[in-house]
Amino acid sequence: MKNKKRKRSDSFSKKPARPVNCKRDFWRIKSSKIFYVAARIRELIRECEHLPRERQHEFKAIVFSQSIWRAKVALEKQDIRTADFIPRINLRDRIKNLEAFRSQPDVHVLLLSNQGSHGLDLSFVTHMFLLEEIWDKSLEQQVISRANPMGAKETLTVEL
């Protein structure tokens, strides 16, 4: 009998994010706050569409959550394009998504989890939505300071 070594299962970190199927996933969501945030973002995007062309890119929002896939489903249901900076997406794709959020005028929302709460400069963001209360107040301050660093000239609106 051979002594077989068992491979360590690190597949969680290497698995690609599963695509969101709105028809299948949408009905599992039981959070009125997520629906409120999606509707509020849709409303803010519509307001920006009435601005002159050179100012339309000014609305950028971060949605921060521990269970980010629910927010992704609700936002997709509202036809809102998102950039994802979330676990289960490799670093190269996260950086590419961050650049798309920064530079593309039709990508208004960055989905952010704990992974993105450190080391990012998101000082161009105008709105931040925290989907659930963050019990660690230092983490909450860290998340907010990503978009509102000391000395920032723009106003950041944070909705809890």
UniProtKB/TrEMBL annotation:
SUPFAM superfamilies: P-loop containing nucleoside triphosphate hydrolases. The keyword ATP-binding applies. GO terms for cellular component: nucleus. InterPro entries: Helicase_C-like, P-loop_NTPase, SNF2_RAD54_helicase_TF. Keywords: ATP-binding, Hydrolase, Nucleotide-binding. Residues 48-147 form the Helicase C-terminal domain. One of its GO terms (biological process) is DNA repair. The keyword Hydrolase applies. GO terms for molecular function: ATP binding; ATP-dependent activity, acting on DNA; hydrolase activity. Pfam families: Helicase_C. This is Helicase C-terminal domain-containing protein. It comes from Phytophthora nicotianae (Potato buckeye rot agent).
